[in-house]
Task: structure prediction
Amino acid sequence: MGLIVVSNREPYAPKRGEAGQLAWVPSIGGLTAALDPALQRSGGTWIAWGEERPEVGEVDLPQGAPRYRLKRLRLSEAEVRDFYYGFANRALWPMSHYFIGRATYQTSTWRTYVNVNRRFAQAAVESFRTGDLIWVHDYQLALVPRLIREALPDARIGFFWHIPWPSTEVFRTLPWDRELLEGLLGADLIGMHTDEYVAHFLSACRRVLGAETEGNTVRWQGRESRVVARPIGIEVETYEALAANPEVEEAADRIRRTLQTQILLGVDRLDYTKGIPERLEAFDAFLDRHPEARRRVTLLQIAVPSRERVESYRQLRAQVEGLVGRINGKHTRDGWSPVQYIYRGVPREELVAHYRAADVMLVTPLRDGLNLVAKEFVASSRDGVLILSRFAGAADELPEALQVNPYNVDGLAEALLEALRMPLDEKKARLQRLRERLRQSDLHAWAEGFLRELAGT
Ligand code: GDG
Result:
């Protein structure tokens, strides 16, 4: 029995070596780490948008010892604009994160979204062999389950929705609310990160479609779909090992020696859901209130460039950079600057060195499907404190973090003080309990568990 994975992003990207040869390099991210091993075990096909050039249509992976085939869909410039930047990132992303003021609902981008979803579905149907499991991922491809179902009525189809599922009042602002639900209900098993998202989804099925639900099951047009909360994990041991690697430790020491202060760390894609301006404001308020902390603490913010073609992301960048300048201008003294701002992605070893160097990790999104950074910090840190937004899906699983309301600037400033003053044994005890929980449901258990459930549905 083989596996077919359908996702927007590709698991490996082509890179040209100096001699012009093509190397396929694994993409960074949870999905590749979770599903590449699963596909290597079962064999099958991964269908994704072939974003990176050159435009190779199909390749067997991993290179040298191939176990499965990657089929790379070539999207035209107009498709990328309307399907990816347009409908997925200007309509579904803001709506799902409760930012309806930022959502743009346009019939033209919706049409492209439908057409591109059809192309992904068709590729899956062409790759299908009887008995294969099909697993489709995320909000870019919500219509794919139903489109596959129309061609393959008996296939086992799973879907994982990686971002929040909002309350029905918000979801119903989408002009294509019915179509989206019907698209997803082509799947037998639908996974989300939290019980709350599942409850909202079931409510939308009842209220928007008039479907019947019983427990976690939705009945619609003679079919049943099960909707379950299965939060994604991380490779805990990989992060522990990386963090203990002497070169990474040395890099962490370098970061500490350079700054010579306590370190608050933020690591996010530069996205308006991540609460970066609110975090900076809270740090400013903290420095105003506790002048004794000046020179003793630094906020190191790594902001990874993201979706720069979308206007609201460009505006956010300007806003964040303006705030960094204002706060540094106001508080800088004697060679110490309160905010260090890095606007680029860093290699994974360097990322883990930062986790290791941090006294306090600030994960304060206004809304986040889950948030893997919080989990990675827990697996990498030895004696740091995690401050975590109650609006991150991961909050359910990480109760020993200091949980905050990211909209409450004063509360966030208070939490900073509490974290910086926390006794060492309490910090260690909290981290240990958090880490034990992460170990119980790591990334591979997540992927294998979902596939087992799908096979059994
Ligand atoms: C979506 C949902 C959900 C970040 N900076 C660097 C870097 N990263 C890596 C982190 C982490 C990943 O990127 C970010 O994952 P998140 O979960 O925080 O956020 P999204 O990208 O928005 O992901 C989210 C997730 O899907 C999974 O379902 O948790 O809620 O929005 O793994 O380590 N990696 C490297 N350099 C960086 O500078 N190497």
The radius of gyration is 23 Å.
